[in-house]
Design a protein that fits this description.
Elements lengths: L1 H32 L13 E9 L9 E9 L8 E7 L2 E8 L7 E8 L5 E9 L14 E8 L7 E7 L3 E2 L5 E9 L8 E7 L2 E8 L7 E9 L5 E9 L14 E8 L7 E8 L10 E9 L8 E7 L2 E9 L7 E8 L5 E9 L14 E8 L6 E9 L9 E9 L8 E9 L2 E9 L7 E8 L5 E8 L15 E8 L40 E11 L5 E4 L7 E8 L4 E10 L13 E10 L10 E11 H6 L7 E6 L3 E3 L2 E6 L3 E8 L4 E6 L15 H25 L5 H28 L1
Parallel strand pairs: 9-15
Antiparallel strand pairs: 1-2, 2-5, 3-4, 3-6, 6-7, 8-10, 10-13, 11-12, 11-14, 14-15, 16-17, 17-20, 18-19, 18-21, 21-22, 23-24, 24-27, 25-26, 25-28, 28-29, 30-33, 31-32, 32-35, 33-34, 34-40, 35-39, 36-37, 36-40, 38-39
Length: about 750
């Protein structure tokens, strides 16, 4: 019994737990089968009448009309074929089949109809009249438009004749004759005919009943105009629309009479136009001239002259005879010699061979814009020296710019940007004026501080000061790879990686280029010049690009270095090779490196000169005394060099200074309160970086002496003796120049 009770209890619990699950399942099934009113993503159809038109638009009564309906399916699915019905004033007048239409498709469906009606009717077109196609919108299937039929069974009154004299003299009688005609299909009722002169009604006549095609006969009026000028006359029949006509828009005629003492032609220049847009300098351009006779009688053949900027052309233009009110187009050619605004003037009947009613209106002047021959600056190529630069190596970039346009280009600036690994460098260099088709080159310098790829981007006319025919082709970009520098400090050719010696320069010898270690970030401008250096032959390096304030250097070499490159660097601040600023007010800090084997050392040259220029603006703005402008040279301290003014021009004052050697300089205003003495304690970086060159020179001098003696003596002893003798003499010489400068 107890077991049966537990068995029954378990069965009841299972039923209770099962029923909710069944209910939930039934409800879920019911929800799945109930699709609702929407089609759950199926394509839809929606037919509309886009437009309703008629051909002809204003038909006559009884004329067949094409009713044209534009039907469109603006749904997302294809519609089945259906019908299009037409209605007139609500009554069905016919129907036509509409074929299947894809989504977005339109069709023009035409229906011919010949009504037996007059006046206005309401035409309605309805697509899918029987609603056989299921649509998303069943209320946009029709369109209505009014169609108006002319009533051709009515009379139609017109002004049949309108006679008058076109040209009158003041006080002369003018007889005006008018007749009316009924060109309609039925008789007209009585009405009125009115005549207006200059807008004022002057007479009125009765028009009796007229049969179809009947003319009223002529009505006459006499006018006596008293003043000169135009005179408007107008005749109107049935002005108040008393007669119901088939056409109410053709009941009047109007014209103008000219009243004048004398009837003459009157020639004017109506327009002057370049035939093909704005003319261009140096190119022949055709001009169209429109001449009109606005007089009262025909004109005879005449001649016109044209002028350019008030200068008469040698040619003339023939103008043919022109009837009153007629115009003609004639042409001439000219070649502009400069750009900008050009005044072109044409004078018709320039010889006054035709007697005109107005002799003061025979000319017209137009300002014509002339396109100048424009240059077109392009960067042809960028070259690097060396082509595969090494880390820390001074690279010379040469950019070639060409003027590819037909016009000359003025001077401008070339901008360059160098992007390397974690470093950038940019600057500008001047570009001289370029005539059409010519090229020029400019150089700039940079020392890479990191390995990897560099991108050199150059832009001609960076300031957009030159107007060009094409402003989009001024840039050129080149890439190169900087590799790790190889150790060549002990190379057999004796070249050194140093930038300067104690009193020397960084210029190359024996064909090598000068290499400066001055940081590129401190270099404002740079220029190079190359020449051969031979013992006993005077040498001069000219810096013709005018990129820096140094114009030239020259000296007498005491040694042979063959082909040597001299580099001038104008610095933003003092050189890293000098420990202190030069005394006085500083104009520029400059490095001059002559080769890289000591060609610029005092031991290698004599009679050294530096030519330089100073901006007048700096002299004026700083109240500088030109006589105190001095070039100072660093050698264990700043030394003032003998400096004299050479010349001046509009922008610069030019100087030259004597120098014992070439390395680091400063252009200053000499301060008389400070003594420019040699600093015995000045053991700066310039001595360390130039020391190798000094050792080379000493060794070279001793070796030469040994060769002359024919045997090997102690070279160091002779070098010491030479230095002991030359150094005091050199110091006495420097003190003499300082003393002379002060005087």
């Amino acid at each position: 019994m107890k077991a049966h009770f537990y068995s029954s209890l378990i069965s009841i619990l299972l039923i209770i737990l099962t029923i909710p699950g069944m209910s939930s399942g039934i409800a879920s099934a019911a929800e799945d089968t109930d699709m609702g009113p929407e089609d759950n993503g199926n394509s839809t159809v929606d037919l509309v009448i886009e437009n309703l038109s008629f051909d002809p638009e204003n038909p006559e009564s009884g004329q067949t009309v094409e009713i044209i309906a534009s039907v469109k399916n603006q749904g997302t699915g294809t519609s089945n074929s259906t019908n299009l019905a037409y209605f007139s004033n609500g009554s069905r007048i016919g129907g036509i089949e509409v074929p299947e239409m894809e989504a977005g498709q339109s069709k023009q469906i035409s229906f011919p109809w010949k009504p037996e009606t007059e006046g206005a009717v309401r035409i309605t077109a309805k697509v899918d009249e029987e609603e056989s196609v299921p649509e998303t919108d069943e209320n946009n299937n029709e369109k209505m438009q009014f169609l108006i039929f002319k009533n051709t069974g009515l009379p139609d009154l017109i002004i049949d004749t309108f006679k008058y004299t076109e040209y009158l003299q003041p006080g002369e009688h003018e007889d005006i004759g008018i007749s009316v005609k009924n060109q309609g299909r039925s008789a007209s009722e009585e009405t009125k005919l009115k005549l207006y002169i200059d807008g004022d009604p002057v007479n009125e006549w009765d028009i009796s009943l007229l049969s179809p095609g009947e003319n009223s006969g002529s009505f006459s009026y006499t006018s006596i105009p008293m003043s000169e000028g135009p005179l408007e006359i107008k005749a109107v029949v049935d002005e108040g629309n008393l007669v119901n006509e088939s056409d109410e828009e053709n009941n009047q005629k109007a014209d103008t009479i000219t009243v004048a003492q004398e009837f003459l032609p009157d020639l004017i220049v109506d327009e002057i136009l370049p035939e093909q847009g704005d003319p261009q300098v140096g190119k022949t351009s055709n001009f169209i001239v429109k001449v009109k006779n606005q007089g009262t009688v025909p004109s005879s053949e005449v001649v016109a002259k044209y002028y350019v900027n008030d200068i008469a052309a040698n040619d003339s233009i023939s103008i043919p005879p022109l009837s009153q009110g007629a115009s003609t187009n004639v042409s001439f050619s000219l070649t502009p010699d400069k750009g900008g605004q050009m005044e072109v003037k044409v004078v018709v009947d320039s010889g006054e061979s035709v007697h005109e009613s107005n002799e003061t209106n025979n000319q017209l002047m137009k300002e014509i814009n002339v396109k100048a021959l424009l240059p077109d600056l392009k960067i042809e190529y960028i070259s690097l020296n060396p082509e595969s630069p090494k880390l820390g190596e001074n690279v010379t970039f040469t950019v070639t710019i060409k003027n590819d346009g037909p016009g000359d280009a003025s001077s401008n600036k070339l901008k360059y940007n160098i992007n390397g690994t974690n470093e950038t460098y940019s600057g500008e260099i001047p570009v001289s004026a370029l005539s059409a088709g010519n090229s020029t080159s400019g150089t700039f310098f940079w020392t890479p501080g990191n390995e990897g790829q560099i991108e050199i981007k150059t832009t001609a006319d960076a300031g957009s000061v030159v107007s060009e025919s094409d402003e989009t082709n001024n840039e050129l970009t080149k890439t190169a790879t900087v590799s790790k520098e190889t150790d060549s400090s002990s190379g057999g050719d004796g070249s050194s990686s140093s930038s300067s010696g104690s009193s020397g320069s960084s210029s190359g010898s024996a064909g090598s280029s000068s290499s400066s270690k001055e940081p590129s970030s401190n270099v404002e401008a740079k220029e190079i010049s190359t020449s051969n250096i031979a013992n006993g032959y005077h040498v001069k390096f000219d810096f013709v690009e005018n990129s820096t304030c140094i114009t030239y250097i020259e000296f007498d070499p005491k040694k042979t270095f063959k082909r040597t490159t001299t580099t001038v660097e104008v610095l933003k601040n003092k050189s890293i090779y000098v420990p202190e600023l030069s005394p006085g007010r500083i104009y520029k800090h400059v490095n001059i490196w002559v080769g890289d084997k000591g060609a610029g050392l005092p031991a290698s040259l004599e009679n050294g000169l530096v030519g330089f220029k100073v901006e007048k603006a700096w002299i004026k703005d700083n109240s500088i005394n030109q006589s105190l402008v001095t070039l100072q040279w660093y050698d264990k301290g700043w030394q003032s060099l003998y400096t004299e003014k050479v010349k001046e021009d509009k922008n610069y004052v030019y100087f030259k200074s004597k120098t014992p050697g070439f390395s680091c300089f400063a252009i200053t205003e000499y301060n008389v309160d400070e003594e420019n003495k040699l600093e015995a304690s000045g053991q700066g970086e310039v001595q360390e970086t130039l020391g190798n060159w000094e050792d080379e020179v000493k060794t070279s001098i001793l070796n030469e002496s040994a060769e002359r003696d024919g045997k090997n003596k102690n070279p160091m002893r002779k070098a010491k003796i030479l230095m002991a003798i030359s150094l005091p003499l050199f110091m006495i010489l420097v003190e003499y120049f300082v003393f002379k400068k002060k005087i």
